[in-house]
Amino acid sequence: MNLNSKDYGVILGGVLISFLGAFATEAGIISSSLAGTITGILPQITILTILVGLVFVYLARDLLGGEVVDNLDVIATGFLIYAITWWPHKQFYHADALGGSEVAFFGIGTPGAWNVFFHTLTAALFGLVSFGFYRFWEMSQEVNA
Amino acid sequence: MRKNDKMVVAAALAFALLAGLWGQVMGLEPAADAFIDFLTFAAVAGGLFFIYKARDKLGGETARSLELLGAGMLVFVLAYWPSYTWSSAGSPTWLGLSTGFWSMLFGLANFVGLAIVAYAFYTFWDMGR
To answer: Would you list the domain boundaries of chain A?
Structure first.
């Protein structure tokens, strides 16, 4: 692995915080009303965090150039569409941030149609992100050709 | 972005639209729900495979940033995959642990996964600087 110790710290620290938060909620250390506030706002924070990441992709484009930028564009596009469609998906379709009532909106389609659309879109966008990773692999083959 | 890439983006969007039309006609079948959940997992897993294959040949900072992207996607999908099933089942008590526990675990892990992705994007920028 090419990760440095700080990277491992970020990854493992993040996973640890997730479990600590969950067990603290279970134990009542985080009150259920506070837990509700946190889980209600987490999706918004998550999407804002992705958008901040995309700003760095934008800033990196001119600095890196070439095929790396082409590949990053694919990956960033996947995350950008994910971030944009997240609001209608979670805030309107799932009225509650985590699995609330489901509605048909714009007066078009059934809730089932929106369900299949949004969730297939999520799968397709991560497929797009993975296509970007495939492109990095393709690039690695050329490097050694 | 290359022309071919734009086609892939368009295909991804068209695929979701067609699936939505299918859902309109067929209604939401539990089997379709489970398949979409699996499809999401498979889509991410495919990308992780290519990161694994690419990193040794690329090496250095590019490999490091890719590994971070992979770690973020892995954390995200490991949270997303069961949370989708859990959410479809009506957010129940699971394995003796409360709804609050799973809400918090899945919510935080989703955030952490995508925050690692954002951090990976930062390292790409940092590398170019």
So the answer is: 1-30, 41-143
